[in-house]
């Protein structure tokens, strides 16, 4: 579903992605972990063209992410993203937040989109909030709306960038539970997270980034329980 070949990304003189090769199969759930500044967000942002790579190749669902506008538009539609800071539209109700892009970008019929939005709200446990504005919701509820909004575009891939990092601890669980449900339904997902238990239980594979490179990767349970590289051992708090 996603193929990255020797991907580099520079901001001015600063190289933050230093040659990443990564292939993600359809239906696979990959957790990306690593210290702050290691390039996790930048890597995700490159996959849906929020950042343009400096060199290398990214292919999403057989479509190369190059300069062709049609390709970029296609990939943006197929790749949903959920951010740390929810980013809901404050002047729209929950229902409007979810339906605006399917109606105006995908040009789908309003009634059908609204029916599907209600189903998605049920899935994330927020059906009764559909006419509320985001500011009336807790952080956990807002993040669940953000997930429903991304799913409403019927993406083939979902990218999550530390989706629970901005939440009070007691709200983390409800959001992880929704993400787990999406994973179990077979969605291809890349989840940047500090929640190691979540990574262990939900991810098929864990990718550990350090300093713009993939330092270690493998089956989640193996990599997290039995890390090989010194950097990953240190990151996980193992004494060597
Ligand atoms: P992570 O998500 O792992 O914390 P990031 O991808 O956010 O790491 O950042 C990696 C590096 O790239 C950091 O040194 C950060 O300061 C830098 N960086 C990220 N975005 C930009 C930008 N738009 N301009 C300049 N530097 C950036
Ligand atoms: Mg980040």
Concise description?
38% of the residues lie in helices and 25% in strands. The chain is globular.
User: Main β-sheet: number of strands, strand sense, barrel status?
Assistant: 6 strands, mixed
CATH superfamily: P-loop containing nucleotide triphosphate hydrolases
Gyration radius, in Å: 18 Å
CATH class: Alpha Beta
CATH fold description: Rossmann fold
CATH architectural grouping: 3-Layer(aba) Sandwich
Task: List the ions, cofactors and other small molecules found in this model.
Answer: adenosine-5'-diphosphate, magnesium ion
Describe this protein with a few key phrases.
240 residues; alpha/beta; Rossmann fold; six-stranded mixed beta sheet; four-stranded antiparallel beta sheet; 9 helices; 10 strands; binds adenosine-5'-diphosphate; binds magnesium ion
Structure description:
It is built from nine helices and ten strands. The protein is α/β, with parallel strands linked by helices and 240 residues long. Strands 6-7-8-3-9-10 form a six-stranded mixed β-sheet, with helices on both faces. The protein has a four-stranded antiparallel β-sheet with strand order 2-1-4-5, with helices on one face. The N and C termini lie far apart (37 Å). It has helices at residues 40-47, 69-78, 94-104, 110-123, 139-151, 169-184, 196-202, 220-225, 230-235; strands at 2-11, 14-24, 29-33, 55-60, 63-64, 79-82, 157-161, 188-192, 205-210, 213-219. It has one domain (2-236): Rossmann fold. The structure holds adenosine-5'-diphosphate and magnesium ion. The site of magnesium ion (MG) has 4 residues, from α1. Magnesium ion binds at residues 40-41, 161-162. Keywords: ATP-binding, Nucleotide-binding, Transport.
């Amino acid at each position: 579903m996603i193929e990255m070949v020797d991907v580099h990304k520079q901001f001015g003189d600063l190289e933050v992605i230093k040659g990443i090769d990564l292939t993600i199969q359809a239906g696979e759930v990959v957790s990306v972990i690593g210290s702050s500044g290691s390039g996790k967000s930048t890597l995700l942002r490159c996959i849906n063209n929020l950042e343009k790579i400096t060199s290398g190749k990214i292919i999403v669902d057989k479509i190369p992410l190059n300069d062709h506008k049609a390709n970029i538009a296609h990939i943006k539609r197929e790749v949903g993203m959920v951010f740390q800071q929810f980013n809901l539209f404050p002047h729209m109700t929950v229902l409007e937040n979810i339906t605006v892009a399917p109606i105006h970008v995908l040009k789908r019929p309003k009634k059908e989109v609204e029916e599907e939005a209600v189903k998605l709200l049920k899935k994330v446990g927020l059906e009764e909030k559909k006419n509320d504005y985001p500011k009336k919701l807790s952080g956990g509820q807002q993040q669940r709306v953000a997930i429903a909004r991304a799913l409403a575009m019927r993406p083939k891939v979902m990218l999550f960038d530390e989706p629970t990092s901005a939440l009070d601890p007691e709200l983390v669980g409800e959001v992880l539970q929704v993400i787990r449900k999406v994973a179990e339904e077979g969605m291809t997902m890349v989840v940047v997270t500090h929640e190691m238990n979540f990574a262990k239980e939900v991810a098929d594979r864990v990718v550990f980034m350090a300093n713009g490179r993939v330092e270690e990767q493998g089956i989640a349970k193996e990599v997290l329980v039995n890390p090989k590289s010194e950097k990953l051992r240190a990151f996980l708090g193992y004494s060597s």
